[in-house]
């Protein structure tokens, strides 16, 4: 087990290195830089002056040199400052990460609370009205894009209830009730979408497991239906579901820019997109590396969960 | 056009977002009202809100959901509208344009004293003397701690502007500054400029403090001024809180205790915030949007805002073939049906398009005929002219642009269709992201066409003429290279007499339209909506009250 974990961690190194090269390269390929975004539109800044400013920011150095400097900053966990706002990147992340983490967690909780019971219900009532209803909901969740659903939700909330979540983010620790009001709708929008895929996967895997011999044995032993389904069938049906949920969590943490934008939440998505648009290299690169590291970690955790769900699985 | 926050226009959502919102909004209205949003004639709303006759009340909080979120607070680094929504209320200028309770209308551009009580040019207008108000206090925030504002502050600020940054072109015009006493600033210009004070009244010419720049090395994070509001909090992507400056030199003002600017990048959310009373002010693009909102909120008020100019038009690489041939430019201009753009995209409310604000040239909004022969839609003549220029079968070219607001993409596509249908000019459109667009556009070495812009903050005639049209100006985005224009705009800034200025401005206008140096396209700044309890909220000086014209909110009060 430990050897497996160490091996996986070591395997993450080339993955992260490759990610760093890709994000560094892509940012440099994109035309323009932060100074162009910040100043050039005014037309008042001479080329000589821009050169000087680029030099001050280290943007005039050869790419390989810039890359190595940044890589070292990553290794030493000191990513530096935003070249656009001068704000230290850890400070920006400290503000953005909790927002996205809270949104992702709530969305995941809501998504799972909907998807697992409905998925199981669909499977156990196959081809009945509840199954059809569950499947329609799942297909809707897969089909409706976030930007459309979010827009509808906020527009109709305003029209019908004269209420929308209070604008102007506050943290849970400052004002818990206001914070929850701010996160409920966006988490529901995200959770609905997430639940769709999970619901479909739960339904199909539970259906498959319900046809296994050991489940038939459980029924034959006279166990209650609830015990058979939830204790014997569901646990074994969860491995593909966990894989999906792990991937979804990674996607959520990478930033949910559309929902964050609609509900005016200052999370990772908005931070990263703004940094990309303004060519704020250090911020984009750090955010991407953070997401890459998170995904690698999540994948490892998902893999480790398999053994808990199915004791037959052994790590070599 | 400035756009750090890219929103610079509150309508700057993506096309996809725009379509979804229109669909959602329309669906919402239909469900609520049982009818489609009616097309409303523009005249349904007043185009000016006069000052309230009631005595103003102090107190309360004015809130606005804003599309803009300035990344930095340094006025040397950006002239974005996002910064101006804060800076024009926190900072002051030497002179300013009238506020909503002083102006006679949206186009009233009478200069008023802000930090200066009076100003006077010498005989040849190379030396301008400004007499400052005594007893003006900086905000009572460290390191200024409410110290008195004096002439040396102006000198320091103007010199810093000239040294580096986006304002350099304007302030490098200054040869030297004298401060004979605490309240007198004497500015020596390198060349005569009768309109120099106007340039200092622009929203971007706010006075910043020496102490902050020297302590921080830049002005990115702190903004301390002498204006009506103190920047109490600026939490990016969340909100900016402006609190009343208790020692503001204009005693009794501002009226509202606080002004909250909520960072709200999404258009539908801003509308929802307005509907639910979380936001007091909202700008929308069309009369039908006003009506949709008034269906659920019948008491909210609206003002029809008439644009005095357009910031956008077709820019051609006119220093290169085929666009260096005036016949080609004229043919293209005549092949574009601008009225169709106004009628379809702007619901009949937009202007046809011109660069210099019409108030400097005409007594009333110019008609299409006054824009000259090459501005009329005459496809047959256009085709003939293009053939004379040696392109009977049209040609291939490119057009790149950044979508400031969704209507712009529709305009670009209509131009593409018109030119293909009428002149067989095939245009390959490139829609770029903000930074790529500006990098390419401002560098000025591109070929083909661009959907060009001039900076959005400018009101002053000198800025509109000399700074945008002179061949040597760094703001010559449209690549003018015309000796006649150079002479005219130089003479314009040397002419003190208003009537002569007007005559010269007309000559500049005529020359531009005759040679089709800039191919202006229709534009509309939309409608102002506000909650019924707000007073003195009208947009003034050709500027919306949410961005470059936000300083007028110092006179807004809450009637509750």
Query: Structural class of chain A, please?
Result: mainly alpha
Mean pLDDT of chain B: 91
Helix amount of chain B: 25-40%
Q: Give helix and strand order of chain A, one letter per element, not per position.
A: HHHHHHHHHHHHH
Overall structural class of chain B, as computed from helix and strand content, comes to alpha+beta
* Count of extended strands of chain B: 20
Radius of gyration of chain A: 24 Å
Query: Count of helical segments of chain B?
Result: 16
Poorly predicted ranges of chain A: none
* Number of helical stretches of at least 4 residues of chain A: 13
- Give the CA-based shape of chain A: globular
Distance between the termini of chain A: 7 Å
Given as residue ranges, the uncertain stretches of chain B (5+ residues, pLDDT < 50) are: 1-13, 25-42
- Main pleated sheet of chain A: none
Q: Helicity range of the residues of chain A?
A: over 70%
Note the gap between the termini of chain B.
Answer: 37 Å
Quaternary structure type: heterodimer
Proportion in β-strands of chain B: 15-25%
Strand order of the largest sheet of chain B: 15-14-16-13-17
């Amino acid at each position: 087990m430990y050897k497996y974990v160490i091996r996986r961690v070591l395997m993450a190194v080339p993955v992260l290195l490759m990610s760093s090269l890709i994000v560094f390269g892509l940012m440099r390929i994109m035309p323009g830089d932060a100074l162009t975004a910040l100043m050039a539109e005014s037309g008042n800044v001479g080329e000589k002056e821009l050169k000087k400013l680029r030099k001050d920011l280290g943007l005039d150095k050869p790419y390989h040199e810039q890359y190595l400097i940044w890589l070292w900053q990553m290794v030493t966990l000191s990513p530096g400052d935003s070249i656009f706002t001068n704000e230290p990147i850890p400070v920006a992340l400290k503000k953005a990460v909790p927002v996205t983490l809270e949104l992702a967690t709530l969305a995941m909780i809501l998504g799972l609370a909907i998807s697992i019971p409905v998925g199981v219900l669909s499977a156990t009532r196959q081809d009945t009205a509840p199954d059809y209803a569950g499947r329609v909901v799942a297909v809707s969740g897969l089909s409706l894009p976030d930007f459309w659903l979010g827009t509808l939700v906020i527009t109709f909330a305003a029209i019908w209830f004269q209420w929308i979540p209070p604008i102007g983010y506050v943290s849970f620790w400052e004002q818990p009730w206001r914070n929850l009001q701010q996160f409920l709708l966006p988490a529901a929008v995200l959770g609905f979408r997430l639940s769709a895929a999970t619901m479909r996967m739960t339904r199909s895997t539970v259906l498959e497991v319900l046809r296994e011999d050991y489940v038939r044995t459980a029924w034959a032993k006279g166990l209650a239906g609830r015990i058979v389904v939830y204790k014997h069938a569901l646990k074994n049906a969860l491995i593909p579901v966990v894989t999906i949920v792990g991937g979804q969590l990674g996607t959520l943490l990478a930033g949910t820019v559309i929902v964050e934008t609609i509900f005016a939440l200052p999370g990772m998505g908005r931070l990263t997109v703004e940094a990309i648009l303004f060519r704020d290299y250090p911020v984009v690169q750090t955010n991407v590396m953070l997401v890459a590291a998170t995904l690698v970690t999540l994948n490892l955790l998902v893999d480790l969960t398999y053994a808990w769900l199915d004791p037959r699985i052994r790590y070599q | 056009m400035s756009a750090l926050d890219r929103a610079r226009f509150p309508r700057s959502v993506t096309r996809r977002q725009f379509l979804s919102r229109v669909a959602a909004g329309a669906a919402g209205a239909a469900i609520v009202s049982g009818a489609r949003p009616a097309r409303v004639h523009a005249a349904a709303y007043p185009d000016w809100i006069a000052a309230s006759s009631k005595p103003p009340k102090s107190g309360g909080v004015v809130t606005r959901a804003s599309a803009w979120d300035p990344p930095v607070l340094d006025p040397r680094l950006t002239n974005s509208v996002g910064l101006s929504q804060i800076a024009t209320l926190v900072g002051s200028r030497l002179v300013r344009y009238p506020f909503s309770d002083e102006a006679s209308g949206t186009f009233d551009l009478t200069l008023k004293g802000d930090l200066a009580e009076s100003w006077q040019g010498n005989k040849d207008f190379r030396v301008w003397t400004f007499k400052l108000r005594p007893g003006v206090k900086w905000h009572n925030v460290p390191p200024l701690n409410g110290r008195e504002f004096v002439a040396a502050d102006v000198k320091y600020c103007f010199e810093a502007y000239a040294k580096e940054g986006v304002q350099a072109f304007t302030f490098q015009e200054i040869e030297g500054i004298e401060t004979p006493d605490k309240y007198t600033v004497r500015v020596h210009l390198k060349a005569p400029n009768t309109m120099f004070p106007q340039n200092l009244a622009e929203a971007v010419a706010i006075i910043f403090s020496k102490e902050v720049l020297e302590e921080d090395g830049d002005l990115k994070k702190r903004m301390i001024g002498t204006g009506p509001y103190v920047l109490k909090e600026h939490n990016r992507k969340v909100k900016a809180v402006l609190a009343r400056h208790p020692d503001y030199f204009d005693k009794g003002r501002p009226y509202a205790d606080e002004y909250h600017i909520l960072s709200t990048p999404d258009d539908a959310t801003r509308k929802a915030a307005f509907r639910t009373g979380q936001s007091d002010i909202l700008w929308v693009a069309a009369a039908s949007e006003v009506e949709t909102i008034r269906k659920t909120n019948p008491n909210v008020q609206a003002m029809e805002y008439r644009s005095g100019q357009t910031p956008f038009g077709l820019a051609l690489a006119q220093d290169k073939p085929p666009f260096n041939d005036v016949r080609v430019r004229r043919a293209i201009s005549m092949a574009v049906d601008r009225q169709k753009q106004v009628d379809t995209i702007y619901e009949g409310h937009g202007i046809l398009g011109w660069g210099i604000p019409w108030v400097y040239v005409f007594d009333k909004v110019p008609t299409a005929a006054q824009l000259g022969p090459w501005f009329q839609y005459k496809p047959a003549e256009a085709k003939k002219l293009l053939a004379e220029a040696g392109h009977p079968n049209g040609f291939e070219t490119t057009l790149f642009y950044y979508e400031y607001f969704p209507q712009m993409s529709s305009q670009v596509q209509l131009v593409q269709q018109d030119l293909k249908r009428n002149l067989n000019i095939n245009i390959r459109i490139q829609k770029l992201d903000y930074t790529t667009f500006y990098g390419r556009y401002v560098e000025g070495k591109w070929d083909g066409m661009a959907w060009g812009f001039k900076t959005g903050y400018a009101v002053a005639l000198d800025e509109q003429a000399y700074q945008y049209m002179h061949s040597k100006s760094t703001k010559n985005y449209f690549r003018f290279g015309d000796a006649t224009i150079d002479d005219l705009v130089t003479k314009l800034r040397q002419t003190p007499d208003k009537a002569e200025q007007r005559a010269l401005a007309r000559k500049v206008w005529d020359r531009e339209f005759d040679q089709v140096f800039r191919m202006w396209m229709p534009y509309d700044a939309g409608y102002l909506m506000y909650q019924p309890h707000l007073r003195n909220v009208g947009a003034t000086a050709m500027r919306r009250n949410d961005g470059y014209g936000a300083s007028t909110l110092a006179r807004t009060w809450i009637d509750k």
